[in-house]
UniProtKB/TrEMBL annotation:
Domain of life per record: Bacteria
Keywords (A to Z) from UniProt: Hydrolase
Record protein name field: Alpha/beta fold hydrolase
Keyword Hydrolase: yes
InterPro entries registered for this protein in UniProt: AB_hydrolase_fold
GO MF: hydrolase activity
Length: 238
């Protein structure tokens, strides 16, 4: 009889994990990882777009790393993570240099080409902080089910780029921490008012970096509620 694993911190539950490379239209190679359920076929795919590289964001930023460590096993979800151009993590360094949220359009396109090539099902964009800017600016051009925004700062995203999601047929979920450093719930309601079908989630006590197991669990549960709600509630042991 195997020991029970308490699901918290950086635990990696069983999954098929593969180091991958993505190839951009402007000739760069990006490094990443694909995590798949160990035995079942995935029911959905999370394409993870990480926080600001110039402020320490990378594919291993903790919520994204924990999504890859837990959700293939707990929710039958495929998790694709990669480093934006010029970004380094233990997996390696992606070619190029930071593109100010402009050249990263090609990085997202490379990830979505990989999703198509591997026939990964029901893709969702999962952006966190800077990753939400790339998601909002460029996500509509790709065949995704929707986008989940964690702590969107809306620094690089114009009002017109936000409004374009209205009536798109793609779901848009904004998960806003009560105590965010950049965009708190009251202001977020106003900034996203142009998208009436937005799924708005204000997290009491939440902070921009989602530190602590209770905040991580809440965020992962909100994600799974969109991509495979039938498996909720997520267990705390495995």
């Amino acid at each position: 009889m195997t020991d029970t694993i308490e699901i918290r911190g950086g635990v990696d539950l069983p999954a098929r994990r593969e180091n991958i490379e993505l190839y951009t239209s402007d000739g760069l190679t990006l490094v990443g990882e694909l995590a798949l359920p160990l035995e079942a076929e995935p029911v959905a795919t999370l394409v993870c777009l990480h926080p600001l590289p110039t402020a320490g964001g990378f594919m291993d930023s903790h919520v994204l790393r924990k999504a890859a460590g837990r959700l293939p096993a707990l929710a039958d979800v495929a998790v694709l993570r990669f480093n934006f151009r010029g970004t380094t993590s233990p997996r390696g360094t992606s070619d190029g240099e930071f593109g100010e949220g402009i050249h990263e359009e090609a990085d997202l396109a490379a990830a979505m080409a990989f999703v198509t090539e591997r026939a990964l099902p029901n893709p969702w964009l999962l952006g966190w902080s800077f990753g939400t800017e790339v998601t909002l600016k460029y996500g509509l051009q790709f065949p995704v089910e929707g986008a989940i925004l964690l702590s969107p700062p809306l620094h690089r995203t114009s009002d017109a780029e936000v409004a374009a999601w209205a009536g798109s047929g793609k779901r848009l979920v904004a998960i806003i921490p009560e105590l965010d450093d950049y965009l708190r719930p009251a202001e977020a309601v106003q900034r996203f008012a142009s998208v009436p079908e937005l799924e708005f989630v204000a997290v009491e006590g939440g902070r921009h970096l989602w530190v602590g197991e209770s905040q991580v669990s809440r965020v992962l549960s909100e994600i799974v509620a969109r991509v495979n709600p039938g498996v909720l509630p997520l267990p705390t042991t495995y």
